[in-house]
């Protein structure tokens, strides 16, 4: 488990994604869970494509129980598994992160991983 923390705007997402790309190049099997309300933690892994968050998809579907893992997880560079948890507003993402982590764990997203990253 690796976490990238710090004040907003200091390059956590960019640093984490470049680190993950290097680890994937070394053959590591990685899951990244973006915990930023801006949902930009996986953008580089997905070739600059925005990803819907678990919370936004759950709101559309009715609840998180109505989602499937393939609805929320995208495959990026070197088969890195990418999930964005989302959050209500900047600074208030805690509940979204907990809900997201529990959902992807229950649906088997951690199987066959060598690295689990969130930040």
TrEMBL record:
Q: Which Gene3D superfamilies match?
A: P-loop containing nucleotide triphosphate hydrolases
Q: Which cofactor does it need?
A: [4Fe-4S] cluster
Supply the InterPro entries for this chain: NifH/frxC (IPR000392), P-loop_NTPase (IPR027417)
Report the domain of life of the source organism: Bacteria
Task: State the UniProt keywords alphabetically.
Answer: ATP-binding, Metal-binding, Nucleotide-binding
GO MF terms listed in the record are: ATP binding; metal ion binding; oxidoreductase activity
The cross-references to SUPFAM superfamilies, in alphabetical order and at most eight, read: P-loop containing nucleoside triphosphate hydrolases (SSF52540)
Family matches, as PANTHER family: LIGHT-INDEPENDENT PROTOCHLOROPHYLLIDE REDUCTASE IRON-SULFUR ATP-BINDING PROTEIN
| Family indicated by similarity | Belongs to the NifH/BchL/ChlL family.
Q: What protein is this chain from?
A: NifH
Please tell me the species this chain comes from.
Sphingomonas sp. BR12200
């Amino acid at each position: 488990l690796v976490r990238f923390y710090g004040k907003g705007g200091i390059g956590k997402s960019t640093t984490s994604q470049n680190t993950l790309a290097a680890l994937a190049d070394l053959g590591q099997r990685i899951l990244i869970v973006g915990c930023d309300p801006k949902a930009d933690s996986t953008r580089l892994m997905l070739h600059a494509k925005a990803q819907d968050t678990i919370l936004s998809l759950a709101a559309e579907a009715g609840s998180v129980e109505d989602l499937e893992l393939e609805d929320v997880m995208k495959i990026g560079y070197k088969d890195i598994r990418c999930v964005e948890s989302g959050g209500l507003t900047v600074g208030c993402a805690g509940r979204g992160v907990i809900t997201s982590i529990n959902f992807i764990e229950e649906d088997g997203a951690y199987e066959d991983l060598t690295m689990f990253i969130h930040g």
